[in-house]
Design goal:
It is a single chain. The chain is of the alpha/beta class and about 600 residues long. The chain is built from 19 helices and 14 strands. The strands form 2 sheets. Strands 1, 2, 3, 4, 5, 6, 7, 10, 11, 12, 13 and 14 form a 12-stranded mixed sheet that branches. The chain has a two-stranded antiparallel ribbon with strand order 8-9. Strand 6 (about 245-250) and strand 7 (about 255-260) form a beta hairpin. The model is unreliable at about 1-50, about 315-325 and about 380-385 (pLDDT under 50).
């Protein structure tokens, strides 16, 4: 049905999106069951020697070099804490930041401050994030070797978050850049420019690949997203996608491409056309597009698009590009545009369209004098889905001819709203020789917030090649939902993961430190809920509501207390963390002896 076509994904991503009608090419993704890519990658032909795609489960050479360089730092950090270990027994520790919007961003920043205060920060080999945690990571890694000067870096981030918003003129310029430079323009571009900037208070145009070699004294960063077309097969291996300064690709299937090429056009394993490397603002939009429930996302995006359209129209009027006699018409045109946007969002929210229909009909008749507009409006029944799209395109064409302030970016945004396409990029595995998986048949793929599937980046660090011994899970969402689900997924995928055993009382009254001890090849998982009975007392629910994920950017007075409770979770548990690290070293020693 029409409603079902809208109500899926991202929280409501279209399952079978139609192609764009403007200059950007959007190839339809395949529908129906998806083959699993790893089933076919074994057929990859060694004769394809000039491929720009790396097929294999090994770590890339740059990450291997980083690990060799970082482990002595970890060893020295442990020595400073009174823990002795040989070079062969240095534990590989991964710190995970869950999703959770600005709460996750600040929660991770505060937690890292706690690791710095306890002297544990240099023990961390990998720093991985999804959703809101990646906003913190993006801010940190702007500074080379940020962990050596965390106090000043943290203060710079805090002052930015407490400062003024990004101006509409800068946002318009950024959207124009995305539209003009990229062949594939989607709502992720709009989300990044309009919404992410409202939270992070900056436009970060740096590139992830530019960080290569500039953060050797920091943990290795890994950002996580998912392949939307594979999401329905979550308990199989073709879903999770990781992005580091060196490579981007499918974590469990062993298919990667240089990060600078991620988004470029590929065919048969070779890059055939450059696309601009995605910048850090877009990456934050890609990773952090699932702030909360779908209703909040719809409302927030609707509000921001309407504000942006209003700015675009008014800016042209104020610049004298519209005569005074035309100002009233501009206002009418803006009302039409707002009603058109709200009409499409009403479908997502299952609300009545009649009020928006009436406004559009009467205002267009008022502007054009053409009474035929009064009979062109479709209703929201399934049979009229195509008619509603056609009507929208006709309205856009009319506005384009009536107003000098209308431009291609506004047109593209409206069409993205109409088609509800997010995170569309060229598929670097398109038509790979010797590989038959369905994923290879589509020229493009749609990537989205990994928090939709699993709200913490467990899968990236559970790659066997990384050999992670200890996972420290910082949970900024629901206390045990993610770690429990990770255990279930790992069971289905035959990935070693410890048993997760929590009492019925724990979700209601979470403590500040849990250990799920690994056996054999399983890593140990330390799980730390953000709000708990130690740092919040009996007001856990009150803190959770105060710092709700689904709300506009936090006011300045909310920032410092959140940083504080996150840091306390680490400083209060220094001795327990040290004890668990010692246990890992002892276990590694025993395993080598056996």
């Amino acid at each position: 049905t029409q409603k079902q076509r809208f109500l899926c994904g991202f929280c409501f991503l279209l399952q079978t999106p139609p192609p764009h009608t403007h200059k950007h090419t959007h190839t339809l993704s395949e529908t129906g069951p998806h083959n699993i890519i790893y089933e076919s990658l074994s057929m990859f032909k060694n004769g394809l020697t000039h491929s720009d795609v790396r097929i294999g489960h090994s770590l890339n050479s740059q990450e291997e070099t980083f690990v060799k360089t970082r482990l002595p730092t970890v060893q020295q950090c442990l020595k400073n804490l009174g823990i002795a270990c040989s070079p062969d027994n240095v534990p590989k520790i991964a710190l995970l930041g869950s999703g959770g919007g600005e709460r996750a961003m600040l929660g991770l920043l505060g937690s890292l401050d706690g690791f710095k205060e306890t002297g544990l920060l240099d023990c961390v080999l990998y720093l991985c994030g999804v959703s809101g945690s990646t906003w913190c990571m993006a801010s940190l890694y702007q500074d080379s070797d940020w962990s050596t000067k965390l106090d000043s870096v943290k203060e710079k981030i805090i002052q930015r978050l407490k400062g003024p918003a990004v101006s509409w003129s800068e946002i318009l310029l950024k959207l124009m850049t995305y539209y003009n430079e990229k062949e594939l323009f989607s709502l992720t571009d709009v989300w990044a420019a309009l919404v992410v900037t409202a939270f992070v208070k900056e436009i970060d145009e740096g590139k992830l690949s530019q960080q290569q070699g500039h953060n050797d004294k920091d943990p290795f960063p890994i950002y996580t997203v998912i392949d939307k077309q594979c999401r329905q097969r979550l308990h199989e291996r073709g879903v999770f996608v990781e992005v580091s300064p060196y490579e981007a690709g499918y974590s469990l299937t062993g298919a990667f491409v240089d990060t600078s090429m991620f988004g470029s056009q590929f065919e048969e394993g070779r890059k055939i056309k450059d696309q601009p490397e995605i910048d850090m603002l877009y990456l934050q939009g890609l990773c952090g597009s699932c702030l909360a429930d779908g209703e909040f996302i719809i409302e927030l995006l609707l509000k921001k698009i309407i504000e942006f359209f209003h700015y675009a129209a008014q800016e042209k009027v104020e610049c004298g590009k519209t005569s005074k006699e035309g100002t009233a018409s501009v206002d009418v045109g803006f009302q039409i545009l707002v009603s058109l946007v709200e009409m499409h969002f009403s479908v997502l929210k299952e609300k009545d369209l009649s009020g928006h229909q009436t406004t559009i009909r009467t205002k267009l008749k008022e502007l054009t004098g053409d009474e035929s507009w009064l009979v062109k409006m479709p209703n929201k029944t399934d049979d009229n889905f195509i008619n509603m799209k056609q009507f929208t395109l006709e309205v856009l064409e009319c506005l384009k001819t009536l107003f000098s302030w209308w431009n291609d970016v506004l047109d593209a945004i409206m069409k993205c709203v109409m088609e509800w396409i997010w995170g569309r990029e060229y598929n670097f595995l398109y038509k790979m020789k010797g590989v038959r998986a369905a994923i290879l048949k589509s020229e493009t793929r749609d990537y989205e917030d990994a928090g939709i599937a699993l709200n913490s980046p467990y899968i990236s660090v559970l790659r066997q090649e990384r050999g992670v011994d200890l996972i420290i899970s910082l949970d900024f969402g629901y206390p045990f939902e993610t770690v429990t689900y990770a255990s279930e997924i790992c069971g289905d995928l035959d990935i070693p993961f410890p048993e997760v055993d929590v009492s019925s009382e724990d979700p209601k009254k979470p403590k500040d430190f849990y250990v799920f001890e690994g056996k054999g090849e399983e890593p140990t998982v330390i799980h730390i809920p953000l709000f708990n009975t130690v740092n919040c007392g009996d007001k856990v629910e009150e803190w959770s509501k105060k710092y709700a994920v689904f709300q506009p950017p936090y006011s300045a007075e909310l920032i410092d207390p959140l940083l504080g409770v996150a840091a306390i979770n680490i400083t209060n548990n220094k001795e327990k963390l040290v004890q668990e690290i010692q246990k890992i070293i002892n276990r590694k020693h025993r395993q080598k002896d056996n």
